[in-house]
Specification:
The structure holds 2 protein chains of 2 kinds. In chain A, helix 1 (about 25-35) crosses helix 7 (about 175-200). Helices cover about 35% and strands about 15% of the residues of chain A. In chain A, helix 1 links the parallel strand 1 (about 15-20) and strand 2 (about 40-45). Chain A has helices at about 25-35, 65-70, 85-95, 110, 115-125, 150-155, 175-200, 210, 220-225, 270-280, 285-290, 305-320, 325-335, 345-350, 350-355, 400-405, 410-415, and strands at about 15-20, 40-45, 75-80, 100-105, 130-135, 205, 235-240, 245, 250, 255-260, 340, 360-365, 370-375, 380. Chain B has helices at about 20-30, 65, 80-95, 105-110, 115-120, 145-150, 175-195, 205-210, 215-225, 260-270, 285-290, 290-300, 305-315, 325-330, 335, 380-385, 390-400; strands at about 10-15, 35-40, 75, 95-100, 125-130, 200-205, 240-245, 250-255, 320, 340-345, 350-355, 360. Classes of the chains: A alpha/beta, B alpha/beta. Chains A and B meet through helix 2, helix 6, helix 7, strand 6 and helix 8 of A and helix 2, helix 6, helix 7, strand 6 and helix 8 of B.
Amino acid sequence: MSNSCREQPAALESYRILDLTEYGCLIGPRTLADLGADVIKIEPPGGSRSRIGPYYKDIADREKSLFWFAYCMNKRGITLNLETADGQNIFKRLVKTADAVVESFTPGYLSDLGLGYDDLVRIKPDIIMTSITPFGQTGPKAHYQGCDLTAWASGGVLYICGDADRPPVWISFPQAGLFGGMDAANATIAAIYYRGLTSEGQYIDLSLQECAISPTLRTTVMWALNRYEHKRAGLALVEPTTHIRFRMSLRCKDGNIVIYMLGSTAPFTNSMDNLIAWMDEEGMAPDWLKNINWTTDYDATRISQEFIDRVENAIERFILTKTKNELYEESIKRRILIAPMQNAKEIADDPQLLYRDFWLEMEHPELHDTLTYVGPSIKLMETPIRFRRRAPLIGEHNQEVYAELGLSRHEIIALKEGRII
Amino acid sequence: MRKNLFEELKVAEFAWVIVGPSTSRYLAEHGATVIKIESHVRPETLRYLSPYPEGKPGLNKSMYYGKFNSNKYSISLNLSHPKGIEIAWKLIMWCDIMTESFTPEVMGKWGLDYDNVSKFRSDIIYLSTCMQGKTGPRSRVPGYGTMLTGLAGFDEITGWPDRSPSPPWDAYTDAICPRFNVAGVLAALEYRRRTGKGQWVEQSQYESSLHFAAPLIMDYFSNNRVATRKGNRLDYASPHGIFPCLGDDRWIALAVFNDEQWKSLCHAMGQPAWCLDAKFATLCDRKKNEDELESSLAEWTSPLTAPEIESILQKAGIPCNMVEKAQDLFEDEQLKHRKFFTWLEHSENGLVPYEPQSTYIMSKTPREICRPSPCLGEHNEYVLKEILGYADEDISNFIADGVIMF
């Protein structure tokens, strides 16, 4: 770490977090590390099972996992076998130096090793521990086997996504763990703040099922108020009492777009006026369409599906004559609520992100290469997120961290030979 | 002894719709006083969106609005009136945190942008969140999460490889973005606790959202691969999918990550002949023959109910769960155990359910939903008199001048 990047303070500097999470949950400690915490990722000897694909240059090697690179940046990394007595003792010594432990083992796993919250409190009374599990630590489903897909299913978001004639569908990149990780980070900072005021630590019990309810947004209240069970039907907005349906995606010349075709209130009504005006300029707006007052004539609770279909089909005919880019650029100028469905390449080329200098270049000396990363997730003007180091190699900071802990060179060698680190 | 985590914390919420209000929910559920500055001239968009009880719209009827605003106070303030701005300033002087979610020029127009506010309140934590950030050619593009979900690539990677995308439901990124905001705001709060210094926290919702697919974007930069949709499959598991069950649109999610789990699954299914075939023996074999594997498995799941399968496979140690519908969530024993839904009496809507934004229970400072979402301007009097110290006469004048509305 050079002195130059020490100029500005970091929001969470001086706090140490032990990271025992895997997969998507890794994003939580990563965020704490971004905000300045000293996050130590603990892996079993041989490396974490989260060192998964995609891989750098498609070389399936644990040291080339882009997934790992993305979600372990800014952390230090050590190996430690928690299933051995020596490993457990070292972990306890680490806990004495730490402010929080974030973990995603099955409920009871750490307690069985003598490393549960109750055990750690005896070593460090104000320790904070945050546990991420599929359903929480207690309750009828607490011991269920789960994974990201089953968490997504348990929260109701899976049921409402997909095409009507096929099974429900998830997002082709696991999301539940990412939600869990982020909320774990938030709970951990909240607990650090509370500890600052009271000197008390606490235990945090997080449920991935509850994370997967979050993106259902309003379908739970639709059921509670209207006994309306929303069913998957592509991207559409359905009025829960009349069941009329507004489409929200259309095909265009070269792909797909998201579009708001709604009435009643600004900005939807203005967007419709602007869209119809554009269609009219190109001779594609029939008189009946031009005569619709979007505020008074297009109230979702009072119009028929037939009328909506007629409107949407007229708009669709126009949209099909344009490319994604034409639609987006012109919609910006005309203030129409349209956005293209972009892919990774289009995102990489997006002029807005380029203008904001969003992409981050980070050196990987071990690969003799510089990799492009997604930039800072949020801007804190006084304590900006800093990129201090790429994700750790397996055991990269063993020497450094264990020496800080006061282990001698001899001890470290013995532990290595005993396959404890 | 403190009762709540954020009991002394005060938030002035100029933000509206979902992302900003969801962010302050984390604080409101843990004891913070959150005052929403709303407008009767241009009411909050969510107040116009369903569901409403019996399907009848009304400014105080939307439980889409309700869902994101329990435990909060609401005042209705006309910020186009100079006295409205005066009241806004009093709230700014009162609060610890202020939030806004407008396109970049709006707060500046009122003189309430960070540069101006921080001259008087160097210790304030000021959160700005908008779709594409405060600078750049597209900073002023208005939009909602449903559009951002397309822009940020989630639509492209959701659905079936042989079809157009089948995008995630509704404003998906609106579920992601509050989580980065609250990380930023809480870190800023913790920094202020130590140093007394406030700061500006700025979110481009686009940039935050990309972190939920970061490895796929790195895959493009490193390997030139443009990620696309794969149904319910996952590269390192097989089977991994959603299978039909007995009943009306009933499904089970299940996944097998290793050969040991596969053997357990075969055993739990009663060793049907097909699953003993060598072409399914290893993960690589199963990947190679995944179409056939999935259709054979679907034959086994189809005549059984989802709870039956859950019970059989959980005993065998296979990750699985029924695909829960909204109704199922209200009947889910695990959610009841964690007291997920809180039913409260709302003055216009009767007994309605509220859900926490925090997906965790803190042992010493647990989440709590104790007050229903507010009607528009419901707390005008409370806020102006009790919190800001205005006299009855001032309030009468505000009403006469159209600054507030009851």
